[in-house]
């Protein structure tokens, strides 16, 4: 259902294609605006002060205007496809209704419409209503059959639920004329809310036989071809429903769609689904070949202000020994988070969240209107909360991008050179994308990773590279990518923090691998870094205090110039260095015994909640003693090392401008040490990679 963009909270919103590029490539801006655009400029955001670039931004001829959103997904067979076959005498499909209020459409084609009004079945022939009035049961699989003999139309709906069997049989004295598009779960005009439902086993009966479609378990990149009959017909799924969903055939014998694909041949359609937007590009710029890697934005000015729409320029050649890994997966997962006011206390206002609410946008932390979780998102949409001036309402302070910008500005202020790669680049290139760098540096919250990303980081560290993990709750959730899409299926490990998907539907439709946490697949946080989330809270952050191990020569270099045993009592994220989400070790869950805890933060407020997945053998007393964040250092046999700040707030505790504090000294000591390390020339690594992307099979390095 189309609706104009509500610009009440933001006069301008949009997205770039692509989202990240190398220097020398073009990038286009797709924008909606309720105000006349005054000017469009490119601004670099990661420098100490924003720098406007003299790059020529050119209009495309499609002037910025007030655009539409199209909400709701559904299957459709176009009239041009139906015309390829002989006379259609019937259609059948399976449907699993979820939560649907108001007026909806179950099926429409030609002169026949089957609808729902607050769950009660309605029908119309040639625009004339036919009373049915029965309530269709929800949360059970129904088989719908429609047939016509030229004089009448027969409708059969049934369920084989043993406890609640359902049967409906109606005959209408008007014939069905299957002309035009055949639409399931939406009106042909797409002018009312689409149906919240699963669909499966769509089939046509024609004069020459049976034509059927099976929804694949793997997300298709285009329309789905039919089987049977005298010709191949294409069925399209409009606006990105969720694939790899349990169907009527699922019997609980397996949770793996690769073993029982027929059990997962359904799609779940929602009235608030939104795939990649198709707004025309209004402006484009060709990034100069000499442009430095960094974080940039199109700044769109109008008579009441301006908005910045972010994109990233990545490094194509090595210019520095350190490589910053931009966590775009985390940025996309959080983008446009709904944060309903009746569930969450807002500590500050943010126009991006208001824009998301006004326009019914959803992040991968949100629920659909039928209370199933949002599991797939495109970067080709406004990401209204991805801004350099963003403040997170749950903590009233910067989060994600602005905190990472705070770190990058610290690097510029202190002469720390870095190259830049996005995590999506790393997913595509594997360990070859890290070739010849001394260290990879993360931002404040690298929470989401694909198997390929995590494996590349393992290979890098195993062959002498260093990982400077400057955040908290990182390397946790598993994601998958296809074109502009990212998919995330949540697991019981996340219970209490966000939506929890059914165990049977946690496999990713992009790969069919199990979703959930990387940890559940024997990789991820503990086995890679040695730490994982221990506490989460939105009250005051805490300082760190050095441990005796921090004075050992193998760690003492980190604290050169740090006079105080306790440090980090200020910052832009909750006022300290250890806050929001913090990590700690756990040998039982995989922390290596050679991991050194070099600082610890304690005395967190009671509002900080424990990670629900941890079990403490010592009971209440041990649990109380583990209310902490633990900064760690691990020297690897390969010669590399892994440093963990273990706090989302760490980068926010860095100083600004020419100022310096202990958090800054530790961070500068770390990065200077890593940059000055001997060049990594491990012959085994050179032989393994050969300068080409290594095979990314998902196995542990």
UniProtKB/TrEMBL annotation:
<protein>
    <recommendedName>
        <fullName>N,N-dimethylformamidase beta subunit-like C-terminal domain-containing protein</fullName>
    </recommendedName>
</protein>
<feature type="domain" description="N,N-dimethylformamidase beta subunit-like C-terminal">
    <location>
        <begin position="262"/>
        <end position="655"/>
    </location>
</feature>
<feature type="region of interest" description="Disordered">
    <location>
        <begin position="678"/>
        <end position="701"/>
    </location>
</feature>
<feature type="compositionally biased region" description="Polar residues">
    <location>
        <begin position="684"/>
        <end position="701"/>
    </location>
</feature>
<dbReference type="Pfam" id="PF20254">
    <property type="entry name" value="DMFA2_C"/>
</dbReference>
<dbReference type="InterPro" id="IPR046540">
    <property type="entry name" value="DMFA2_C"/>
</dbReference>
